[in-house]
Design goal:
The complex is a heterotrimer.
Chain A (H helix, E strand, L loop, with lengths): L7 E3 L5 E3 L9 H5 L13
Antiparallel strand pairs in A: 1-2
Chain B lengths: L20 H13 L3 E5 L3 H6 L11 E3 L5 H15 L4 E7 H6 L2 H10 L4 E6 L25 E2 L2 E2 L8 H7 L4 E6 L3 H13 L4 E6 L3 H4 L6 H10 L6 E4 L2 E5 L8 H4 L15 H18 L23
Helix pairs in contact in B: 1-7, 3-5
Chain C lengths: L1 E5 H11 L4 E3 L7 H12 L6 E3 L4 H13 L4 E5 L1 H6 L1 H9 L5 E6 L13 H4 L7 E4 L3 H16 L7 E6 L7 E5 L3 H7 L16 E2 L5 H33 L7 E4 L6 E5 L3 H14 L4 E6 L1 E3 L3 H7 L5 E6 L9 H9 L7 E5 L9 H13 L4 E2 L8
Parallel strand pairs in C: 2-3, 2-4, 4-5, 5-7, 6-7, 11-12, 11-14, 14-15, 15-16
Antiparallel strand pairs in C: 1-8, 6-13, 10-12
Helix pairs in contact in C: 1-2, 1-7, 3-5, 7-9, 8-9, 10-13, 11-12
Classes of the chains: A alpha+beta, B alpha/beta, C alpha/beta.
Amino acid sequence: MVCPEGCIVEQEDEAFLPDYDYCKGCGLCAEECPAEDIEMVKEEK
Amino acid sequence: MVVDKSLELFDCGHRACGGCGPALAARLILKAAGKNTIVATATGCLEVFSSPYPETAWKVPWIHSLFENAAAVGSGIEAALKRQGRSEKVLVIGGDGASFDIGMLCISGAFERGHDLTYICYDNEAYMNTGIQRSGATPLDAHTTTSPAGRCSTGNSRPKKDMPAILAAHGAPYVATTSIAYPNDLMQKVERAMEVKGPCYVQVHAPCATGWGFESDRTMVVGKLAVETGLFVLFEQTDGTVTKVKKVMRKPVEEYLKVQKRFAHLFKPRRNEVEIARIQAMADANAAKYGIDIKLKKPMEKPAEKPVEKPGG
Amino acid sequence: MMRFIEGSIAVAEAVRMCRPQVISAYPITPQTHIVEALAEMVANCTLDAEYITVESEFSALSACLGAVAAGSRAYSATTSQGLFLMFEPCFNLAGMRLPMVMTIANRAVSAPLSIWNDQQDSISLRDSGWMQFYAEDNQEAADLHYLAYKVSEDHKVLLPAMVCFDGFILTHTYEPVDMPAQEQVDAYLPRFVPFEKLDAHDPISFGMFAFPEYYMEFRYAVDQAMQRAREKIRDAGKDLAGKIGRDYSAFVEGYQLEDAETVLIAMGSLCGTIKDAIDEMRGAGRKVGLLRIRTYRPFPGEEILAALSGAKRVAVLDKNISLGSKGAVGLEVKDALYGSGIPVLDYIVGLGGRDLRKRDIARIADLAEKGEGDLFYGLREGVA
């Protein structure tokens, strides 16, 4: 809902996964998720 | 109006900064507006990051003309649709620079003539696309490149222009303020604005991580603080009368100011009590004017507060 | 039907018959009679259009832009300061390949302020991508609107067009004008069929921003459209001639040109005076002729060269000046005649409504024959 890109897609198992081709790594999803279910992992420096 | 809110009409792949408030605003606005919409956008961040030839993020018919004329272009579209007997709704979107300043002429004309369109201003409180310069929407004491804080200045010296009041004074049947930090409220109000006949105005507070100086994952947090401190009031106005206001357990303005680099000069090298007090007074005045304070019968136990993060943390 | 009417009204009547769906204009002297007449027609239901009383010329053209993009035939009219306020949307509209017609009631530009005629206003927009037609009289002013819409809306052109006629001299002058019947105009100018439009059933984006990798090709495309317009103007002119009996297919018009040694070049109503002056000069045995330019954009370089093969000298009467250089028409005529060996002398005339009489035309011919040119003609005593 809060992704400015609109690239988070609900998977079959009801988990939410971003389309990594479009994810900018802003972290809003992780910050706002009420279930605290999303974790930001740094890809590279 | 039944709109399929699962539809994504603002596609990903646009060039906005990560965590962009206006990008989220565009997405939510179009969800609320639906497919049967024609959009005219002013030059600015939203337009630039969404339309680099040969790509476009817009899945509805869209036109960008100039910086200051979106409302006039929208007026022309509305007239043409009326003439052709078509059902599409006209949505005009501009940033605060395009709306409060250079586009005032065209907005005033469009609203005065009563065109059936909705004007949405995504308010990131400065000319962001050109590098963070001061606009009529820049709040008091905010640092921008043309209203910088320095030895002889505490930043922007003027309060925010009251655009909703100006357009209500034009006789707009519906005026609303929203924030991307309250997405459902935003979508409801946009949907309402598009339903109401005549020129309707919705202002969307859209924090800008790059311009305001906070981490990209804090956009919603910052947006909420603006509302919770009373500096940005969420309300609805129908035919000139305020009909709905979001009430808050008000936080001191300092909590909002401290998390943004554009206000850092109010705290370092030393606290500027005078300016902080001025801003607090503005929030207090908003609270009084709109009645946003939640009045409790009994004083409540103060909940343990999350530690306030330093800017850049 | 022959009518004895004011130029502005003739134009308004012609516009009415073109059936614009959206009219958006801001009042400015000397265009006001046109937009007032159109408003009255709408109020009396003799013209079925949306009339937007905009808050500035800038908004007027912006609204037209939106209307055309949404698929409606649009119209506006302006002059001088108003046209300059439209500078930005003029380029924007042409760049987006949106067709429409706008009447320019040619007027001098500030500063100093003047409401009287010269051609600085529309000529200053010659870079914009708008086609430009200059009318000598009110008949032509009215007729050119049918032609302008037809060429503008052609899918191989898709460029907006200005129909220019001299403020006050033509706009406020009564002349006999033959107005065709609505059926004749309908037969010539069918309903507007946009090439692309804003439509929720088939969403597209207008007005992108273009990186350096793409921008030039867009501008090239606009220029190519201008070049294609040449043939379309000729065709549309011939077609119109068949319908109403008046032929505007030629970009230039020669008067007493055949054996002329001194050729005067000008645009607009001044040519009427020049023709009368030439009659007198011919009577006195002088071999003077006129080449009138009617289509200024696209510029008729080849037509000018072809028409002037026998001339010994050319005198261009420019009702405009590119300050720091010369008159715009003079410079472009020189370019067209480059290599021909024919000297081109430029005379800045009539700015701000300064009147030109037949004797002034004769004096300019004298100066040209003496080889004295590239000057402001007729300045007050003690100024030059």
